[in-house]
Amino acid sequence: MRCKKCTATAVSENPVLCKKHFLEHVEEVVHHTLVSRRLVRKAEKIGVALSGGKDSITLLYLLRKFHGKVEAIAIDEGIEGYREKTLEDAKKFCGKHRIRMSIHSFRDEFGFSLDQRLTKKDRPCSVCGILRRNVLNKYARAFDKLATGHNMDDEAQAILMNLLRFNWEALPRGGPKPGIIRDEAFVPRIKPLYFLTEKQVALYALLMGFGVGFAECPNARLSYRAFVRDLLNEYESQHPGTKEKLVQFYLVLQSKLKTKVSSAPLSHCLRCGMPSKGDYCAACQTARVVVN
Ligand code: SF4
Ligand SMILES: [Zn+2]
Ligand SMILES: [Zn+2]
């Protein structure tokens, strides 16, 4: 198969491009997302949520290239046999590219690791997600924005999950620049990889030689997201373009929803100060199971 822009052998099927043109294509997509969606302003300092996987490393690299003012924030949830390795990759990458990186652990923040916190009844990703968001938000306050490595696959999964769970309140909060909730305790989030598929990001990371592993968290397969992911992947293989259409459909819908849904002011958690619907936020309620 030949590249559609030159005569070299293609390394990518979607779009059909050689290595040079594929790398250029990915960078153009991210640059265009940053500019057309006004994700960053010149003077802003951006915190990048870094897990050490292909998405967040690619994100960090490209934001550093196009914007410059970036620092990495990594979370150590305490997942034995998995997180140590990805944090090592993250540290190596930041060392090589001279990017400042901070690591914050569940153990320091809540007094336990995720492995210690989980019981047989728990859905690991629900517990992890609540606690992780809390810690990320806390340390993102030192920045103007927090960038996350969500790609098009992640977004298509989130959209479908919200629909299937009748989670309509979360529906308007997606997109490359979410931010329907305006609260000084929340740092605005941006998703510069929004218009790239997971495969494109993985190939970019591989071709760039970022040296990241592709292992998945051992808890991931137990999540509802994994079920939706498999379903979407199966559907995509039968009907190529499904994920992209789902995301495009969502963006049109979202532009209408944002004006309809009121962003009522939230109160703040009595323990950590994060926005919360009740006296304590979801993270503090989750953490207190062990703390008490
Ligand atoms: S897959 Fe689930 S448990 Fe593992 S890091 Fe992600 S959210 Fe946490
Ligand atoms: Zn080419
Ligand atoms: Zn709290």
Overall average pLDDT: 91
Q: Architecture in CATH?
A: 3-Layer(aba) Sandwich
Please report the distance between the alpha carbons of the first and last residues: 61 Å
For the sheet with most strands, the description reads: 5 strands, parallel
What sequence of helices (H) and strands (E) makes up the elements?
Answer: EEHEHEHEHHHEHEHHHEEH
Count helical runs: 11
Structural class: alpha/beta
- Number of individual domains: 1
Here the CATH topology equals Rossmann fold
Low-confidence runs (pLDDT<50, min 5 residues)? none
Gross geometry? globular
Notes on the structure:
With 292 residues, this protein is an alpha/beta fold. It has one domain (19-291): HUPs (Rossmann fold). It is built from eleven helices and nine strands. The strands form three sheets. A five-stranded parallel sheet has the order 5-4-3-6-7, with helices on both faces. A two-stranded antiparallel sheet has the order 1-2. Helix 3 (83-97) links the parallel strand 4 (70-76) and strand 5. Helix 7 crosses helix 9 (224-238). The N and C termini lie far apart (61 Å). The mean pLDDT is 91.
